[in-house]
Amino acid sequence: MCAFACGALAVLAFSPFGYWPVVVPSLLGLYALLDKASPKQAAWRAFGYAMGMFLPGQWWIHVSMTEFGGIPLPAAFLLLTGLAAYLSLYPTLACWLFARFFTARHWSRWLLAFPALWLIADWLRGWVMTGYPWLWLGYSQIDGPLKGFAPILGVQGITLALLLCSSALWLLWQSRKPAWLLLPVALVGAAQGLMQLNWVTRGEPVKVALVQGNIAQSLKWDPEALVPTIRTYQDLSRDNQDADIIIWPESAIPALEKEMGNYLESLDKAMKLNDTALLAGIINYDTRQQRFYNVVLGMGVQDADGKQSYHYEHENRFNKYHLLPIGEYVPFEDWLRPIAPFFNLPMSSFSPGDEVQPNLIAKGFKLAAAICYEIIFPEELRRTVQPDTDFLLTVSNDAWFGSSIGPWQHMEIARMRALELARPLLRATNNGITITTDIDGSITGQIPQFEARVLRSEVRPAHGQTPYHRFGSWPLYGFCALGLLLALALRPRAHPWAREL
């Protein structure tokens, strides 16, 4: 129960709560539980800690299950407990290995072995079975003093810095040697210094208008709601034709692209008349391959000279690559679909697009796109961004999760991508949270949830590469490999000459 409480405390560090310092006492509680534990005890305590973080931290998923999937609340609780238990296996394995192979009270145990094992567990959780890297600890620090490591090492560089700071404080508690305070002070100072470096060059401000239609999820795929939905987006856009780029969210046009061909051609011409670009979400059904794709289309003024025009299956589009399990495709669907309506959610039979796709073009500007869920995979977006990419674009529909904390966590993750890659972020959503950010992830424009409104903002494009954009996570992989080797070599059991605390 103590471990569960420590894990639950960490949830308060993430959005919308934003109490980023509480991660440190949360980790210190885990350290105290692991310090003299046997491998079995360490595994159970780590499991309790992770359950405390994942079950409350992911409880918002039940909204889609109960309100739209037809699953009773007790059954949803059991399913989410199973999901949390699965996610908890990764830190459980890390802490079992920690207690099994690093038992001696030596500084390398906490400063090398534990951070390396924790990061490896996080990466495995973000990769196995398509991955689920939600609630990585580094995300909680988007407004904290360690955020400067993100452009260098990515979000997991912040996680590493958090673990090192916590480990140093734990060593201070054990040894009563104030010198250990130098490490967190140095890390915070280094992060603040890194934030002063300039990795990119900036262009002139671009006027953008992000349209939030606030269409109820219950009406989203109702054929009778198609015309009112489109009219809502048209009406909201009409007074913003002076913008350079207008953005509609994920599946803002809830119909098949081929069926909307005439409308889209007319929309393309109307936007060109106003010298405006439009990016809009829609669904495409490829009749040749017999596959559905979740798409963002580029229309209106596309290339800089305005000569390109929309036509069905034109190239200026982005097909979602990383699909959401259950929501966009159903693994083992022959078994799962008959079980409950939850496995037959609307539009749950998508196919993935190419892993790396060209940037979208809007009025000559290049935008690296990610649709909804796939923004949580940093390496995938990193591969899409080019040195001459101007903006990051993510469109989403978080109406599945109501007024829960899920959309806020999702927004926080998207902000981290802007910080890692030093690109302004344009995030258009159906019912919130619609934002624009600067290259450091700070919010420059935001409109409230659950309101049909337009976010007007001016954003400056950025060109160049951060170290994380150039090298990805390879420096952290190197730290983990070297850290584990050094920690094994420095174990006092293996080398009696190694000094203890």
UniProtKB/TrEMBL annotation:
Q: Which residues form a coiled coil?
A: none
The residue ranges of the CN hydrolase domain are: 211-461
Q: Which GO terms describe its molecular function?
A: N-acyltransferase activity
Give the bilayer topology: Multi-pass membrane protein
CDD domains tied to this protein: ALP_N-acyl_transferase (cd07571)
Keyword DNA-binding listed: no
Question: Which controlled-vocabulary keywords does the entry list?
Answer: Acyltransferase, Cell membrane, Lipoprotein, Membrane, Transferase, Transmembrane, Transmembrane helix
Q: What is its main location?
A: membrane
Query: What InterPro entries does this protein's entry cite?
Result: Apolipo_AcylTrfase, C-N_Hydrolase, C-N_Hydrolase_sf, LNT_N
The record ties this protein, via Gene3D superfamilies, to: Carbon-nitrogen hydrolase (3.60.110.10)
**Mind telling me which Pfam families this protein's record contains?**
CN_hydrolase, LNT_N
Q: What is its EC number?
A: 2.3.1.269
Pathway(s) this gene product operates in, as recorded in its UniProt entry:
Protein modification; lipoprotein biosynthesis (N-acyl transfer)
Q: SUPFAM superfamilies annotated for this entry? A: Carbon-nitrogen hydrolase
Q: Which GO terms describe its cellular component?
A: plasma membrane
Q: Give me the segments passing through the membrane.
A: 17-34, 46-63, 75-98, 110-128, 148-173, 180-199, 471-490
The biological process GO terms on file are: lipoprotein biosynthetic process
Q: Which family does it belong to?
A: Belongs to the CN hydrolase family. Apolipoprotein N-acyltransferase subfamily.
The UniProt entry, under HAMAP family, shows: Lnt
Q: Which NCBIfam families match?
A: lnt
State the protein's name: Apolipoprotein N-acyltransferase
Q: Which organism is it from?
A: Aeromonas molluscorum 848
Print the organism lineage. Bacteria, Pseudomonadati, Pseudomonadota, Gammaproteobacteria, Aeromonadales
